Amino acid sequence: MSADNGPVAAKIRKYEPGEEQVLYDICLLTGDSGEDASALHRDPDLLGAVYVGPYLRLAPEHALVGVDDEGVAGYVLGAPDTRAFEAECERSWWPPLRARYPVGSFADDTPDDRIVRLIHAPPAASQDVVERYPAHLHIDLLPRFQGRGNGRRLMTALLDGLAAAGAPGVHLGVGTANQRAIGFYRRMGFTEVHTYTHSLIMARPL
Ligand SMILES: CC(C)(COP(=O)(O)OP(=O)(O)OC[C@H]1O[C@@H](n2cnc3c(N)ncnc32)[C@H](O)[C@@H]1OP(=O)(O)O)[C@@H](O)C(=O)NCCC(=O)NCCS
Questions:
Q1: Ligand 1: which residue has its CA nearest to atom 13?
Q2: In DSSP terms, which residues pair with 13 in a beta bridge?
Q3: By Cβ atoms counted within 10 A, which residue in 30, 71, 138, 194 is the most buried?
Q4: Within 13 Å and on the Cβ side, how many CA atoms surround 143?
Q5: What is d(CA 204, CA 16) in angstroms, rounded to the nearest whole number?
Q6: Cα-based angle 206, 199, 94 (whole degrees, multiple of 5)
Q7: How far is the CA of 184 from the centre of ligand 1 (A)?
Q8: DSSP string covering 118-162, please?
Q9: How far apart are CA 198 and CA 175, in angstroms?
């Protein structure tokens, strides 16, 4: 990798309280199939409220960040038991968000509207997937942190933690438009276990 490709990773460590907003920002900056989704959303925190917030609150021991000399530049978040995580979200994470964002908060079929609908009716992972691969994860790195081995390092550290927590397998969802991430996941040992119109579920044993 060339030396002009941005700063090198300083370290990987557990997320620390107070870093919520920077992780929400990274989620938005990578939220359009790996590209900046800022222009798609009127509310900049909605994506993070679904894909970051509940992990920091409910599974902080599996929230890892990558830090370079400019600060936090990426994260990987996971839950070792997806069914338990879904149940806890239903109990404590979704209700205040549903109150804050009623259905109809945004114009029909806009990206924000679709996320609000997801908050009100979050899809459960399918049973055949959670039986074999009960854990799940999300990973997002800022452009300056990509393509230099940091995804592998963060992923490996998370998988070790999920395995140590007793999970025999892990799954994730990825949009079919995000071919780069799909290539990365394959390289990290994931294979497709479900194909939907616009997304895949990929999984691997631990
Ligand atoms: C996808 C992402 C996490 C990958 O992380 P990364 O740091 O760029 O990947 P790494 O440099 O650690 O690559 C790890 C390995 O995967 C390989 N790889 C990465 N992308 C690949 C691709 N598209 N096809 C094939 N192999 C790929 C690398 O060559 C490397 O192989 P090696 O370690 O065996 O030599 C990162 O690019 C990212 O955050 N993208 C934007 C957000 C995103 O799309 N997140 C996923 C949402 S579902």
A1: 149
A2: 65
A3: 30
A4: 9
A5: 28
A6: 80
A7: 4
A8: HHHSPPPPPHHHHHH--EEEEEEE-GGGSSSSHHHHHHHHHHHHH
A9: 6
DSSP-assigned beta bridge partners for residue 93? none
Convert the pLDDT of each residue in 32-85 to its tens digit: 999 999 999 999 999 999 999 999 999 999 999 999 999 999 999 999 999 999
- For residue 145, which atom of ligand 1 is closest to its CA? 7
- Quote the longest CA-to-CA distance of the chain: 48
Q: Which two tokens stand for residue 124?
A: 């459960």
Locate the ligand 1 atom nearest the alpha carbon of residue 185 and give its number.
Answer: 16
For the chain, what is the radius of gyration of the CA atoms? 16
- Does residue 6 sit in helix, strand or coil? coil
Cβ atoms within 10 Å of 13's Cβ, excluding its own = 12
pLDDT in tens, 133-164: 999 999 999 999 999 999 999 999 999 999 99
**Does the C-beta of 77 come closer than 6 Å to ligand 1?**
no
> Where are any strands of DSSP class E within 56-134?
63-68, 71-79
